[in-house]
């Protein structure tokens, strides 16, 4: 117990070696002068040093960092997992916002998986400590204040790919302005849209293969090409519903965003 009560002394020796040595020399000189002249009483060192307040260090642990990252997490793949892994490495606890279906439709296009399905996928990852459902696509001032005050978030995380709103502005502009934004590296070569494209391409190849197997050799080649072209165009109508990234077409439309009833088509 005596060792624990005097642990501050050893803290002082470790953190202030020169000051500690000076005080020891001064104490030794005072001890010699007291024994020589007599009549002078000084408090013993263990009681004297605490009054100085020199070696008392504020004992506080490392600040617990909570970080926030949001996303659609539609058709979750290893790119999503890698992003969450990087985000967790920037703090102690990772809070993940799953963007609502309505926000995804407004800003990107219809999601394949519902909110409930996406919540289950995100919640099951080992890097995720807490999930916020129906998060907004844009970091608004109101939502940012809620993150900082209610959820005790220290930093907002996003990948190094731009995330733009329909009007072309940065969805994370306020977080960057507040100095509470950190960036991670986006995983190249994979995206939910790419996965959707692979599925549609696989369906198309399967249909073409079935057609060749069931078609008589006597059919004229140009008729076969016409049927294949019609099938590809039919599939293209579905592909056009998915925007390739968050880089909206507004970048190429003189900063004019789409209207509420506008539809995107690829010809």
UniProtKB/TrEMBL annotation:
CDD domains per record: CCT
Name used for this protein in its record: ethanolamine-phosphate cytidylyltransferase
Every Cytidyltransferase-like domain range: 68-197
Protein species of origin: Liquidambar formosana (Formosan gum)
GO BP field: phosphatidylethanolamine biosynthetic process
Enzyme class: transferase
Domain of life: Eukaryota
InterPro entries: CCT, Cyt_trans-like, Ect1/PCYT2, Rossmann-like_a/b/a_fold
UniProtKB keywords: Lipid biosynthesis, Lipid metabolism, Membrane, Nucleotidyltransferase, Phospholipid biosynthesis, Phospholipid metabolism, Transferase, Transmembrane, Transmembrane helix
Pathway per the UniProt entry: Lipid metabolism; Phospholipid metabolism; phosphatidylethanolamine biosynthesis; phosphatidylethanolamine from ethanolamine: step 2/3
Family annotation (PANTHER family): ETHANOLAMINE-PHOSPHATE CYTIDYLYLTRANSFERASE
Family: Belongs to the cytidylyltransferase family.
Any Pfam family hit: CTP_transf_like
E.C. designation(s): 2.7.7.14
